[in-house]
Automatic annotation (TrEMBL):
Keywords: Oxidoreductase. PANTHER family: 3-OXOACYL-[ACYL-CARRIER-PROTEIN] REDUCTASE, SHORT-CHAIN DEHYDROGENASES/REDUCTASES FAMILY MEMBER. GO terms for molecular function: oxidoreductase activity, acting on the CH-OH group of donors, NAD or NADP as acceptor. It comes from Leptospira ognonensis. This is SDR family oxidoreductase. InterPro entries: NAD(P)-bd_dom_sf, SDR_fam. Belongs to the short-chain dehydrogenases/reductases (SDR) family. SUPFAM superfamilies: NAD(P)-binding Rossmann-fold domains.
Length: 274
């Protein structure tokens, strides 16, 4: 049974690895004996966390500073990983822009009618174009493996359902200043579901599987009033703990999910079915 859920010596790249969930994905991989390759825009956090994982689990782990919106940086990093380890076994497309939803005293640029085109481009460049570029390079290397491998895209419950903007409303504010969940978050996360289905068939003949997780919101010191409102919309009555996706990540990346391909897995406490 332990071997069924083992990632022993599998070289797995994680984007956005310095973030709240990115660290959890890397920890999950290391705990299952894998070799996490942590990528992030910021060098110091991933290098430090790679050392933490090495000491904690006795596995190899490396952190790299990579801007996944820059194709040349991805190409160079992919080459370096293959030269170091000889292969890549898995990829977790986790990176995304997810700014806090906040009110404004002037003009709320998160609102669709005020949303700036350069922000749209920046958000899609990280969350969607970045996933495409990483799949293009790291995914192609996975396809060269005799045994194949796995690509795991981190979508969201908001890739399946629309955000309930009532969750973010502030009493007394005029409509033009009311905070909202930005349009780009839903578009990116829905786009990752489309990318998942495309990739699931593209390299299937080479035994490269691609699946997506649609996590619900993670508890992270949010405003108590927001917490009350959002948990009332979740059948389990709470938000996720940050470590609750680790088992699912290990399962989908490993041989235990060898016949799962193109699956869109909701892990949102039931929110998307209510």
């Amino acid at each position: 049974m332990n071997e069924l859920f083992s990632l022993k010596d599998k070289v797995i790249v994680i984007t956005g690895a310095a973030g709240l969930l990115g660290r959890q994905h890397a920890d999950a991989i290391a705990s299952a004996g894998g070799i996490p390759i942590l990528l992030d825009l910021y060098k110091e956090p991933v290098e430090e966390y790679a050392k933490v994982l090495q000491e904690k689990y006795g596995v190899r782990a490396i952190g790299f500073q990579v801007n996944i919106t820059k194709e040349e940086e991805i190409r160079a990093n992919c080459t370096e990983i293959v030269q170091t380890f000889g292969r890549i076994d898995g990829l977790v497309n986790n990176a995304a822009n997810n700014p806090k939803v906040e009110e404004s005293s002037d003009k709320n640029f998160s609102r669709l009618e005020n949303f700036q085109f350069h922000v749209w481009n920046d958000d899609l460049a990280v969350g969607l174009s970045g996933a495409f570029l990483c799949s293009k390079y790291y995914g192609f290397e996975i396809s060269k493996n005799p045994k194949g491998g796995c690509i795991l895209n981190i979508s969201s419950d908001l890739g399946i359902i629309a955000p309930d903007q009532r969750l973010y409303q502030k009493p007394g504010l005029p409509e033009e200043l009311q905070p909202v969940k930005p349009v780009t978050y839903s578009v990116v996360k829905a786009g990752l579901i489309g990318l998942t289905r495309y990739l699931a068939t593209y390299w299937a003949d080479k035994n490269v599987r691609c699946n997506a997780i649609c996590p619900g919101g993670v508890e992270n010191n949010q405003n108590p009033e927001f917490m009350k409102e959002v948990t009332s919309r979740i059948p389990l009555g709470r938000m996720a703990n940050k470590d609750e996706y680790k088992g699912l990540v290990v399962f989908l990346l490993g041989d235990s999910a060898s016949y799962m391909n193109g699956a869109i897995v909701s892990a949102d406490g039931g929110r998307s079915v209510w």
